[in-house]
Amino acid sequence: MDFSAWMDGLQKRTENSLDRLLPPAGVAPQRLHQAMRYAALGGGKRVRPLLCHAAGELSGADPDRLDIAAAAVELIHVYSLVHDDLPCMDDDVLRRGKPTCHVEFDEATAMLVGDALQALAFQLLAEHPLAGDAKRQLDMLRLLAQAAGSRGMAGGQAIDLAAVGQPLSLAELEFMHIHKTGALIRAAVLLGAACGESLPEAHLAGLDRYAKIAGLLFQVVDDILDSESDTATLGKTAGKDAAQNKPTYVSLLGLAQAKDKAAELRGAAHEALASFGDKSRRLGELTDFIVSRSF
Questions:
Q1: pLDDT, tens digit, for every residue of 216-268?
Q2: DSSP state of 132
Q3: pLDDT of amino acid 295
Q4: Which of 105, 183, 212, 280 could form a disulfide with 276 if both were Cys (CB 3.0 to 4.6 A apart)?
């Protein structure tokens, strides 16, 4: 199966899983459940679920288990988007080509949508058998909680908000994005691998290195897209970071050097996968896909 067919199949599989796992729109409280489904369904490239499934191939994981882990990570991601778009954060009106959740519904409902999606993510990890023993499954819960919390995504967002209008060094910018974007991408990769057989420590270290590099790569390309693409292409407001005077890889390095940085990270990601051989084919293809979104 070529990469495009593989990706298309898994995107549809993820959509079906989310549709099945989210509360039905007709169940009380209906408005909240309608808004949760509005935010989570029918949009996005599902990069994190794709990474989860691709990493699961390294450990021979059951695809049904990977569906649950991938859905949990995606629900955390969607909750973060709903909250990021609120007027108290980035104050955006467009997400995935349609009105943001607080615009389509209201701010209070959008806040509750984020809360409920986050809770559902952990409910899924807790109630479905995903690992061979209880300790590993608890470790998976801890991994996602840390990735979403103050030492991960939420902490990175706090740093991002504090950095508006402030000059950051490259090290400070990378520290912010290791948390804001990278932590959840790393969780997607490691959770996928954890759904299968235990990997040797050396392989786990290589996979962890890959996941951290992929997280930074995703953000560098995102910054390039924000500066080069239009709103229709992105499905969200283009140029928002520059308009809000946020530090980005493009504002710090310039567009050409940001692209050089992406190429450097792309090479490092492939190098981190070298020990896995053909089993890491999909992770390698996803790395190239992340870059090809822009150039």
A1: 999 999 999 988 876 656 666 666 666 677 889 999 999 999 999 999 999 99
A2: S
A3: 39
A4: 280
Q: How does DSSP assign 42-102, residue by residue?
A: S-S--HHHHHHHHHHTTTT--HHHHHHHHHHHHHHHHHHHHHHTSTTTT--SEETTEE-HH
- Please, what's the b/e burial string for 68-106 (b: 16 or more CB within 10 A of its CB; e: otherwise)? bbbbbbbbbbbbbbbbbbbeeebebebbbeeebbbbbbe
- The dihedrals phi and psi of 165, each to the nearest 5 degrees, come to 80, 0
**Residue at 23: amino acid letter:** P
Instruction: Give per-residue pLDDT as tens, 1-59.
Output: 899 999 999 999 999 999 999 999 999 999 999 999 999 999 889 999 999 999 999 99
Query: Cβ-count burial of 270 within 10 angstroms (0-12 exposed, 13-18 middle, 19+ buried)?
Result: middle
Least Cα distance to 192 among 54, 295, 80 occurs for 54
**CA distances from residue 268 to 164, 207, 273, 274 in whole angstroms, order as listed:** 30, 12, 9, 10
State both tokens at 293. Answer: 């979104």
Report the chain's mean pLDDT, rounded to a whole number.
93
Question: What CATH code is assigned to 3-292?
Answer: 1.10.600.10
- Say what the pTM is: 0.94
Domain boundaries, the chain: 3-292
Structure tokens at 5: 């067919």
Amino acid at 19: D
* Residue 170: burial class (beta carbons within 10 Å; 0-12, 13-18, 19+): exposed
Query: From the CB of residue 134, how many other CB atoms can be counted at a distance below 10 Å?
Result: 9
The yes-or-no verdict on residue 168 having pLDDT over 80 is yes
| Cα–Cα distance for residue pair 72/119, rounded to 1 Å | 10
